[in-house]
Write a structure and sequence with these properties.
Helix 39 packs antiparallel against helix 40, helix 42 (about 840-855) packs antiparallel against helix 43 and helix 44 (about 880-890) packs across helix 47. By secondary structure, the protein is mainly alpha-helical. It is built from 47 helices and seven strands. The two termini are about 50 Å apart. The relative contact order is 0.04. The strands form two sheets. Strands 2-3-4-1-5 form a five-stranded parallel sheet, with helices on both faces. Pfam families: AAA_16, GerE. Keywords: ATP-binding, Nucleotide-binding. This is LuxR C-terminal-related transcriptional regulator. InterPro entries: AAA_16, P-loop_NTPase, Sig_transdc_resp-reg_C-effctor, Tscrpt_reg_LuxR_C, WH-like_DNA-bd_sf.
């Protein structure tokens, strides 16, 4: 698999043709490490094979440089195979002569050699080659000329000047950049060359051919580009990467391009490490400095770290470039000049591997000091400190803390945690200074590792001198708005609150801390009916206008409001009024994710007043800072809640998925909240496949959150119901409902489990139980008073009750829901009423309106039911893209998402997205209806 070397092969073939005519030549093949010199020499014998050409071959090696005439002996041994008896005797005689010369040189010891002493043996060798050439042209191949032993070099230099009269071509391969390549004898041979063949890197087309050769199929354009850019056309690097990918079972698809970029083949690293170890100290030192500094070091900085002056650094950098280990990279600021970079990521690994542990430690420590003294960023200095075990610099802790603060601001808490944990290794920290560092570390950990956060807060509290400081430290514990707070963390909060005393007896900043502690403690009891009742009493005691001037007052009010919403102990109008006050006083883009204030959005959804929070969110998105990962996730989660309140589960589900992807690795609390949103949006969408996937994913999430636990029960019941297991489904629903009732959670908007259970009882033929649940739901809804809850309950009763009474209930449901923000519930009520009327102009109008609303809510399953139920509305046209049509066709053949992804060379997530769009455009709810809609799709396409 030798690509793009035909011109070089042709030149050697021409040289052999000239040698046959009595015109010998010396061909020098040059190039950096891994460019393919050895591969070219290996291919030459087969390329020029004919009956009259004899090939002599020798391969030099660094470890054999002390073996005198080793390369010459390899060449003579090549002649022994198939040689006549007389020639074999001469070869044996010449080889013995070289052995005697080597022995004499060893006995003489080090010192200047006498070239005249070698003249008889060298002349005999040339005479021997002249006799061999009499039968046909001779091709002599010497690989790695830079490693040839000195006596053999002298022999080759002698021969290079005396090729006249020989029908021979001498081909020598010389690696660029090697110090021994400047040996006088090597230069003498190179100067005698009649042809020079410098090998260049492979083109993108050759890279594509190499990909096909190694992986057995053509590579995607993105994959080939990644291979070409990463390996810079170096055949050794490219083949090593492709062999690694092939061993791992990767195919050359677009989604594997990143795997090609990040590959670090072990064999390539070892080969490069051997090359680095053989270099002079200055070259090794500069390579080590570049490896330690990474992308942040310019040549001058690397030279200072390596201890080289500008001239020495320039020479070492040129040597690295000639070896093919380093290439120039233009920085973003082109006026600053090019900066060196390693030609392949494995080069840096190889340089690191060539260093001892002590050398790496010393270099990173010196690099940290150099970067600090030259004014580089805190994170660049911290990266060097992190690479070492200890550091005695007095400024190291301050740099690490500043780097952690920067990492937190850019949404990288994992990096901040690493910096702060490294800072804790400094033995000089004690007392309050150590406590402050522990608190900073706990604040970074609270979203990722609540247990570690709690542990570090408990270590910091005894080191703080005042009660206010200890209470403020306790507030750094992760605010478990949804999940259950561990008992140990609750104990810390209670101790801090008890030490401060009642908030009403305090003033200033200490009162703020006490109020926030009260909010945290009350939220810890959210699953306790007695604690909820106490929280509602506390809210009522504050009067009609609870204080909301400060952040702590707003946080406490939000917790108390949540208790009133869960227990339905405050009218929706009052809930809306207080929630709006909280939003009006909350600064845009505040750190609400670190408090209980997100509960305000839940309260407005429960009160069927999402317009208030929707307008607030739009302002927040325009003016707030949304550059942090956690803040982004929080924004998507709020949007999901608002969209659910408006009856748009599909886009809400998409926002919840984005929130989960962003938050799961950064903030555990938001990860739980995002999963809850996914569960309840999936319940509204009624997609069994989606429900099963969510259940499988959620089973790996450890959480004691009551909302998540019960929501998963409800989702499991929905999956059972869709698979015909109605009895099991209703039992699961009732068990989940009883858990909510036991906790005192009675809000019919947030937890509409009775309508689902009533529907299942109706399917099972148990009308009495269904009607009892429906009546209970109506009473709860009317007690709460939110239009969406009342309308849903009336629709449920109207569906179960026959005759005029049922029709009246459905008409009332439609009337109530016209005042609700949830258009999907209105569409359901319109559908039920239209079907009950069984034809006529009014029924058609209701069904058309239901279909229009369902389409606006992106609920194709409901729109399809409205179309099937009658009405003159035209079905939506299947305006699928070309890719969507291909995906739909493959799905129609019964292929799974994974199989379709393999067929098209994309990811499974991309296939899922295309199918979701197709379901929406075709107004179908899943694969079964999609297959049924395929004839209609073909008709639309044909038309």
């Amino acid at each position: 698999m030798l690509h793009e070397r035909d011109p070089e092969l042709a030149q050697v073939t021409t040289a052999l043709r000239d040698a046959r005519a009595g015109r010998p030549s010396l061909v020098l093949v040059t190039g950096p490490l891994g460019i393919g010199r050895s591969a070219l020499l290996q291919r030459l014998p087969a390329h020029v094979a004919d009956e009259g050409t004899r090939v002599l071959r020798a391969n030099a090696a660094p470890m054999e440089q002390d073996f005198g005439f080793g390369v010459v002996r390899q060449l003579l041994d090549s002649l022994l195979a198939g040689a006549p008896r007389e020639l074999c005797e001469r070869l044996t005689h010449e080889s013995a002569g070289f052995a005697r010369m080597t022995a004499l040189a060893d006995e003489a010891g080090p010192g200047p050699e006498d070239p005249a002493a070698h003249e008889p043996a060298l002349g005999g060798l040339r005479s021997l080659l002249e006799d061999v050439c009499a039968d046909g042209p001779l091709l002599i191949l010497v690989d790695d000329l830079q490693w040839v032993d000195t006596p053999s070099l002298r022999c080759l230099a002698y021969l290079a000047k005396r090729l006249r009269g020989l029908r021979a071509v001498l081909v020598c391969a010389l690696r660029d950049g090697e110090p021994r390549g400047r040996h006088p004898l090597v230069c003498e041979i190179a100067d005698a060359a009649t042809h020079r063949l410098p090998l260049g890197p492979l083109s993108a087309a050759a890279t594509a051919e190499t990909v096909r050769d190694h992986l057995g199929e053509p590579g995607h354009e993105d994959f080939v580009r990644a291979c070409h850019d990463t390996c810079a056309g170096n055949p050794l690097a490219l083949t090593s990467v492709l062999q690694d990918l092939a061993a791992a079972g990767h195919r050359p698809t677009a989604d594997r391009a990143e795997a090609a970029r990040s590959a670090r083949p072990a064999d390539l690293r070892e080969r490069l490490a051997r090359c680095v170890r053989l270099q002079p100290p200055a070259v090794r030192d500069l390579a080590a400095a570049l490896a330690v500094l990474g992308d942040h070091g310019d040549p001058a900085l690397a030279a200072r770290l390596a201890g080289l002056d500008p001239i020495g650094a320039g020479a070492a950098l040129r040597a690295l470039g000639e070896l093919g280990l380093v290439a120039d990279r233009l920085p973003e600021d082109r006026t600053a000049g090019p900066r060196p970079r390693f030609a392949h990521p494995a080069v840096r690994d190889a340089v690191h591997a060539s260093l001892t542990v002590t050398e790496r430690e010393r270099l990173h420590d010196r690099a940290a000091e150099l970067l600090y003294r030259t004014g580089h960023s805190d994170e660049q200095v911290a990266a060097q400190l992190m690479a070492g075990v200890t550091s005695g610099h007095p400024w190291s802790v301050g740099v690490l803390r500043a780097a952690a603060d920067t990492a937190l601001r850019r949404g990288a808490p994992e990096a901040a945690i690493r910096y702060l944990r490294r800072a804790l290794l400094d033995g000089s920290l004690a007392g309050e200074a150590r406590a402050r560092l522990l608190i900073d570390l706990a604040a970074a950990e609270r979203g990722l590792d609540p247990a570690a956060c709690e542990r570090h807060i408990s270590q910091a509290i005894p080191l703080l001198p005042t009660a206010g400081q200890r209470a403020a430290a306790a507030l750094r514990l992760s605010p478990a708005v949804l999940d259950r707070t561990p008992h140990s963390a609750v104990d810390l909060l209670r101790q801090a609150a008890a030490e401060l005393g009642p908030p009403d007896a305090l003033e200033g900043a200490v009162r703020e801390v006490a109020l926030r502690l009260e909010a945290r403690l009350r939220q810890c009891g959210v699953a306790d009916p007695a604690e909820l009742a106490s929280a509602v009493e506390r809210l009522h005691a504050m009067g009609e206008e609870p204080p909301t001037a400060t952040a702590a007052e707003r946080e406490l009010a939000a917790v108390l409001l949540n208790a009133a919403v869960l227990t339905c102990r405050l009218p929706p109008a009052d809930v809306t009024r207080l929630a709006r006050r909280l939003l009006e006083r909350e600064p845009v883009a505040s750190a609400r994710v670190y408090s209980a204030l997100p509960l305000t959005t839940v309260a407005l959804v429960a009160a069927d007043s999402v317009d208030a929070v929707g307008s607030w969110l739009s302002v927040e998105q325009r003016l707030g800072r949304r550059d942090a990962t956690v803040a982004d996730a929080f924004g998507h989660l709020e949007q999901a809640m608002v969209l659910m309140g408006r009856g748009r589960p599909a886009p809400a589900h998409a926002h919840a998925e984005r929130a989960l992807r962003l938050a799961d690795a950064h903030w555990r609390e938001l990860g739980v909240a995002s999963t809850i949103a996914l569960v309840f949006t999936a319940l509204e969408m009624g997609d069994p496949a989606r429900g099963v996937r969510i259940l499988e994913d959620a089973s790996r999430r450890q959480s004691s959150c009551l909302t998540l636990t019960v929501g998963l029960q409800f989702l499991g019941a929905a999956v059972d119901a869709q698979q015909g297991r109605w009895a099991a489904a209703v039992e699961t629903l009732m068990a989940g409902g009883r858990r909510l009732e036991a906790a005192g959670w009675r809000n019919p908007v947030l937890f509409p489990w009775r309508p689902r259970a009533a529907g299942l009882y109706h399917r099972l033929g148990d009308l009495r139980s269904a009607l009892a649940l429906a009546e209970e739901e109506r009473l709860r809804a009317e007690a709460w008073g939110a239009p969406v809850a009342v309308g849903r309950a009336l629709r449920l009763q109207g569906t179960l009750v026959e005759g005029e009474a049922g029709e009246a209930l459905l008409r009332e449901a439609v009337g109530v829901l016209r005042g609700s923000a949830n258009e999907l519930e209105l569409a359901r009520a319109l559908l039920m009423l239209g079907r009950r009327l069984q034809g006529g102009a009014e029924a058609d109008g209701l069904l058309r309106e239901a279909a229009a609303l369902a389409t606006a809510c992106e609920a194709p399953w409901l729109a399809e039911r409205a179309h099937r139920g009658g009405g003159g509305a035209a079905r939506p046209k299947a305006a699928l893209t070309r890719t969507e049509r291909r995906v739909v066709a493959l799905a129609g053949r019964g292929l799974t998402n994974t199989e379709i992804a393999g067929e098209l060379g994309v990811t499974s997530r991309a296939i899922e997205k295309h199918l979701t769009n197709s379901y929406r455009k075709l107004a179908v709810s899943g694969r079964r209806e999609l297959i049924a809609a395929l004839p209609r799709l073909q008709a639309v396409k044909g038309g």
